[in-house]
Amino acid sequence: MDHKSSLRLTGYTLIELAVVLAIMAVIAIIAYVGLSSSDKGEKLVDAQNVLISRLRTVQNQVESGLDAGTTPIKTAVFNPANKTQYIINGQIYDLPEGVTMTALSHPVLLCFGNPNLSTFGSGCSDVCTCNSFACVDTGTGTCANSLSPVIITLSGSGSPSKQVAIDGSGLFINRIYVP
Q1: Which of 30, 112, 113, 162 makes an SS bond possible with 48, Cβ 3.0 to 4.6 Å?
Q2: Is the pLDDT of residue 69 over 60?
Q3: How crowded is the C-beta side of 9, counted as CA atoms within 13 Å?
Q4: The model scores a pTM over 0.70
């Protein structure tokens, strides 16, 4: 009997190794795409939650009089010309990278007033000239009362948009919520 013919070679061929590597590469690509799109969605949800939290904090401060009544009204500004920032009480906040505000055609000024006060003092008409919780700068030198609720839409590439709604009447914000 021939010794060479009775030996069986064991191991993998080059073709088998190439197939296994190709399958592993496809799985890695699918996992990467899934994780990266999930991360974008998390950024939007985080941005939405942070915005709601900041707006509710200001609302609570005004309503509870935590600033000792020295500022009976506080403001938040959303400007479509700057889609990556918003201003609350003079403090500028940046949205996370890749997240922008959309669906605003004109700048919106939100006014947070204490519903327990009958008057806001002389500074109120300078800040909230519409005598409404939400004023829209129409670009014509005048402002108009905004429809209630005001909807702020946050968007990111490849992810469904998220919204924050602010509802109110007069100079008072009643609700801040996710529609």
Answers
A1: 162
A2: no
A3: 5
A4: no
